[in-house]
Amino acid sequence: MKTSTRCPRCHQELDEGPIMYRCAHCCRTVYAADLDNEYVPRTPVAA
Questions:
Q1: What's the confidence (pLDDT) of residue 14?
Q2: Global pTM?
Q3: pLDDT in tens, 4-21
């Protein structure tokens, strides 16, 4: 099952690189190991 990987900066879909992802929209390069650390949710969850 494929999950969509999003850019931490602009939230566009990243390319399919297994180790390094690239965002075509903002030209950012993100390592797969850093996606969990740099992830910023789109909308905050209400408490």
A1: 86
A2: 0.58
A3: 678 888 888 888 778 888
Calculate the alpha carbon distances from 16 to 5, 12, 33, 46 in Å.
Answer: 9, 13, 14, 32
Residue with more model confidence, 32 or 40 = 32
Contact indicator for 28, 38 with CB cutoff of 8 Å: no
Question: Long-range contacts: 28-37, Cβ < 8 Å, 24+?
Answer: 35/5, 35/8
- In this structure, are residues 22 and 28 in contact, taking their beta carbons and an 8 Å threshold? yes
Cβ within 8 Å of residue 19, ≥6 positions away: 31, 32
